[in-house]
Write a structure and sequence with these properties.
Helix content is 71%, strand content 7%. It has 145 residues and is mostly helical. Strands 1-2 form a two-stranded antiparallel sheet. Helix 1 (2-15) packs across helix 5, helix 2 crosses helix 4 and helix 3 (40-47) crosses helix 4. It is globular, with a radius of gyration of 18 Å.
Length: 145
């Protein structure tokens, strides 16, 4: 059931194209949006990637105007990442297109099923956010030790 749901969401969201960003780039944009000012090393760890690969991925996003790199005032060797206004507008537009695709399906569902789905998704989001933050905290603590 879960796999089928994920695949159907991918089909629906595929209708709301992510072009010009690749799925990997989109993942970076979402991570930077949720962790504004994240540094390259932490981003690479979160992506389970290497810093050089992550840096090249970010280079493409900077060139496309989606990300901005800012040298940390505390340590000039550290680069912090921020969404640009263009990147933020891109994500807002993508979310609106995805929402329209989902809304078309939800409108066909009975009201009671929509309510149950909403409650389940809210619980899922809360739990997933806690897990992501816990994983990020452990990674940061492990690096500090």
């Amino acid at each position: 059931m879960t796999l089928t749901t994920v695949e159907l969401l991918e089909v629906l969201w595929g209708r709301a194209s992510t072009a010009p960003a690749s799925p990997s780039q989109l993942r970076v944009l979402f991570m930077v949006e949720h962790q504004d000012g994240i540094n390259l090393r932490t981003l690479a760890d979160s992506l389970a990637s290497t810093p050089p690969s992550t840096s090249r991925l970010c280079d493409r996003l900077v060139a496309a105007g989606f990300l901005e790199r800012v040298v940390s005032p505390a340590d000039r060797r550290e680069v912090r990442l921020h969404l640009s206004s263009h990147g933020r507008a891109f994500l807002d537009d993508l979310r609106a297109r995805r929402e329209r695709e989902l809304q078309a399906v939800l409108e066909l569902m009975p009201a009671a099923k929509r309510t149950a789905l909403l409650e389940g998704l809210e619980a899922f989001c809360d739990t997933a956010a806690l897990q992501i933050h816990d994983t990020a905290s452990h990674t940061s603590r492990d690096r500090s030790a």
